[in-house]
TrEMBL record:
It holds the Pfam family DUF4817. GO terms for molecular function: nucleic acid binding. Residues 13-54 form the DUF4817 domain. It comes from the Eukaryota. This is T-complex protein 1 subunit delta.
């Protein structure tokens, strides 16, 4: 990585804290021969002003396209490689460039937003139990032990009240889809909306405060 790009990237990540950027330098290069405070501050200020880490003469020659120089693109690429969940608005603020310029660079880098996948923790025997249940139901349907007309299909949606992760507006930036998952508790503070459907029609919706328990089932089925 170009040293100037590294300095700009660390200054952005550290909210322009030169001491923190110098510590990052030491961890990266294993020495304390870092540029002085003034040099780091001036380089970052120049990047915010011109969108380039190149020398002034070279930057002036390409003044009409400074935000898409190779140095600027490398800064953006490295930034999202290290922090792919950062929003475009916040990234533009941290890097000190216009949001439209950042979006243009991201487009050239072929960065796209992807949804994060939220999963529930599963025990080792869950797959086997699901398979056994499916096989049992198929056998009962084939023998007529279960009347299809008496089957109700139900579903529910939880609305959390404690800042639970909403996967609909959570994105990460990258050139390809990554297997990123977040494990969350099965019992956050929430309320539930339940509904069912069968050959007889739709039943619901039912609003439930808390979890769907046997007591709640009996309450709205009576």
């Amino acid at each position: 990585m170009d040293i100037r790009v590294f300095i700009v990237l660390q200054m952005a990540r550290c909210d322009e804290n030169v001491k923190a950027a110098q510590r990052a330098w030491q961890e990266k290069f294993h020495n304390k021969n870092w540029p002085n405070k003034r040099t780091m501050a001036r380089l970052y200020a120049k990047f915010k002003r011109t969108g380039s880490v190149e020398d002034d003469k070279k930057a002036m020659a390409t003044a009409t396209a400074t935000v898409v120089t190779d140095g600027a693109k490398q800064v953006v690429d490295d930034f999202f490689a290290a922090d792919p969940t950062r929003s475009v608005r916040r990234a533009a603020e941290m890097l000190g460039i216009k949001r439209t310029s950042l979006q243009r660079i991201m487009k050239e880098l072929k960065l796209s937003p992807y949804k994060i996948q939220v999963t529930q923790p599963l025990n080792e025997d869950h797959t086997q139990r699901q398979s056994e249940f499916a096989q049992l139901m198929l056998e009962k349907l084939q023998t007529g032990e279960i009347d299809v007309k008496k089957i109700w299909f139900s579903n529910e949606a939880y609305f959390t009240l404690d800042g639970h992760l909403n996967k609909q507006n959570y994105r990460y930036w990258g050139r390809e889809r990554l297997e990123i998952t977040v494990v969350r508790s099965l019992h956050p503070k929430k309320f539930l909306v339940w509904c069912a459907i069968s050959s007889h029609g739709v039943f619901g919706p039912i609003f439930i405060d808390g979890n769907l328990s046997a007591a709640n089932y009996r309450k709205f089925l009576d």
